[in-house]
C-alpha cells in the first residue's frame, strides 16, 4: 500500500483528521514519514494501529490504557497487558456497582408512585422538586461511595 496523507488515512479509518492528530499528540499514532511538502505520511501499519485503538476503545479502555498496551511488543511480558485489562475490569465493576445503587434508588422512587392520579401528588415529582436530600440521595450515594473508594 502506498503512503497515505492524514486525510486519506482518516477516510480509510472512518475517523476525523483531528482525531488522528489527537492520537498523534498522545503518542498513539506516528507518521511513517513526511512528504517533500512536509505532509504527514502513513503506511499500512497505521490502519492496523487505528483498528487496534478502535477495538480497545470499544472494550472501554482509556486512551492512556491504550498507549500502555501499544507500548507492549516483542519481548514485553504479557503480565503487563493483563494488569491493564484487570485494572479496567475493576473500574467496570465499580461502575456496575454504582449503577445498581442508582437503579435501587430509582426503583424505590418508582415503587412509591401509584401511577394514577394528579401529577401534583406524584411522589417522584415531589422527591425531584424537594432537592438533593430526597431525589439525589439515590444518585449521590453511589458517587460518594466511588469517591471514597479512590
List the main descriptive attributes of the protein structure presented here.
150 residues; mainly alpha; Multidrug-efflux Transporter Regulator, Chain: A, Domain 2; two-stranded antiparallel sheet; 7 helices; 3% strand; disordered C terminus; DNA-binding; transcription
State the oligomer: single chain
- Domain module tally: 2
CATH class type of the largest domain: Mainly Alpha
Helical content class? 55-70%
| Count of DSSP H/I helices | 7
State the total count of DSSP E strands: 2
SS-based class: mainly alpha
Order of helices and strands: HHEEHHHHH
Strands in their spatial order, largest beta sheet: 1-2
Keywords: DNA-binding, Transcription, Transcription regulation
Organism: mine drainage metagenome
Protein name: HTH-type transcriptional regulator ZntR
InterPro entries: DNA-bd_dom_put_sf, MerR-type_HTH_dom, MerR_fam
If you had to describe this structure to a student in words, what would you say it looks like?
This protein is mainly α. It folds into 2 domains: 6-59, Multidrug-efflux Transporter Regulator, Chain: A, Domain 2, CATH 1.10.1660; 98-149, no CATH class. It has 7 helices and 2 strands, in the order ααββααααα. Helix 1 crosses helix 2 and helix 5 (78-112) packs antiparallel against helix 7. 11% of the residues are buried.
Amino acid at each position: 500500500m502506498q503512503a497515505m496523507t492524514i486525510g486519506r488515512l482518516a477516510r480509510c479509518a472512518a475517523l476525523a483528521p483531528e482525531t488522528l492528530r489527537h492520537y498523534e499528540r498522545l503518542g498513539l499514532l506516528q507518521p511513517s514519514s513526511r512528504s517533500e511538502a512536509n505532509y504527514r505520511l502513513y503506511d499500512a501499519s497505521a490502519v492496523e494501529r487505528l483498528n487496534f485503538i478502535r477495538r480497545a476503545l470499544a472494550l472501554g479502555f482509556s486512551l492512556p490504557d491504550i498507549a500502555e498496551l501499544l507500548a507492549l511488543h516483542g519481548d514485553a511480558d504479557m503480565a503487563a497487558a493483563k494488569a491493564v485489562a484487570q485494572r479496567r475490569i475493576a473500574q467496570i465493576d465499580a461502575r456496575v456497582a454504582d449503577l445498581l445503587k442508582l437503579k435501587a434508588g430509582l426503583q424505590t422512587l418508582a415503587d412509591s408512585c401509584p401511577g394514577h392520579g394528579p401529577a401534583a401528588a406524584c411522589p417522584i415529582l415531589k422527591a425531584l422538586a424537594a432537592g438533593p436530600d430526597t431525589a439525589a440521595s439515590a444518585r449521590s450515594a453511589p458517587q460518594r461511595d466511588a469517591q471514597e473508594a479512590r
